[in-house]
């Protein structure tokens, strides 16, 4: 994620940050929770847009779509967390809204769902397969980086 963000910055392309905030103070996604701040590889730089969402999709509860249109952006490269949830719903929403979408699988996180008996790898593989079938192009970071040159 960090290499992609640096390369996009270096190429003069925007880097947009999405945060997920929950109102429930016991949630690990509450703004006061220790897990809420971004990982070190995903910290914004001055002037980079930040949107705070309260739903799985980055589009449903933020003005992200309007911002992208205002900036003349029509192609998104999606990285981050989490494959089966936010990345999935954001990529699908972006596609439905007419944006070209590239998901960078080696820059996307996933996790197990023990309550459903599902391991992260299975969830990840199915999610990426579904996105590739109808919503997004999948490109590893090496290919994306090579395309920025």
Uncertain residue segments: none
Rg measurement, Å: 15 Å
How many β-strands, per DSSP?
5
Beta fraction? 15-25%
Which strand order do you get reading across the main beta sheet?
Answer: 3-4-5
| Structural shape | globular
Mean pLDDT across all amino acids: 97
How many strands, what sense, and barrel or not for the largest sheet? 3 strands, parallel
Distance linking N and C termini: 17 Å
Reading the helices and strands in chain order gives HEEHEHEHEH
Number of helices: 5
Query: Percent range for helical residues?
Result: 25-40%
Helix-and-strand structural type:
alpha/beta
Brief synopsis:
This protein is α/β, with parallel strands linked by helices and 149 residues long.
Topology:
Layout: H1 2-10, E1 17-20, E2 50-53, H2 64-70, E3 75-80, H3 83-96, E4 100-108, H4 120-134, E5 137-138, H5 141-148
Parallel strand pairs: 1-2, 3-4, 4-5
Helix pairs in contact: 1-5, 3-4
Structure keywords:
single chain, 149 residues, 3-stranded parallel sheet, two-stranded parallel sheet, 5 helices
Write structural notes for this entry.
With 149 residues, this protein is α/β, with parallel strands linked by helices. It is built from 5 helices and 5 strands. The chain has a 3-stranded parallel beta sheet, covered by helices on one side. Strands 1-2 form a two-stranded parallel ribbon. Strand 3 (75-80), helix 3 (83-96) and strand 4 form a beta-alpha-beta unit. The longest helix is centred in the C-terminal third of the chain and has 15 residues, at 120-134. The chain starts with a helix and ends with a helix.
């Amino acid at each position: 994620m960090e290499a992609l963000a640096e390369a996009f910055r270096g190429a003069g392309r925007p880097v947009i940050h999405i945060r997920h905030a929950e109102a429930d103070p016991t949630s690990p996604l509450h703004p006061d929770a220790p897990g809420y701040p971004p990982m070190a590889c995903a910290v914004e730089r001055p002037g980079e847009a930040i949107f705070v969402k309260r739903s799985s999709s980055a589009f449903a509860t933020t003005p992200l779509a309007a911002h992208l249109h205002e900036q003349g952006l029509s192609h998104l490269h999606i990285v981050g967390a989490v494959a089966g949830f936010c990345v999935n719903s954001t990529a699908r929403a972006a596609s439905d809204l007419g944006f070209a979408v590239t998901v960078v699988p080696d820059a996307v996180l996933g996790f197990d769902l023990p309550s459903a008996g599902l391991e992260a790898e299975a969830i990840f593989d199915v999610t990426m397969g579904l996105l590739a079938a109808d919503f997004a192009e999948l490109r590893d970071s090496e290919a994306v980086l090579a395309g920025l040159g």
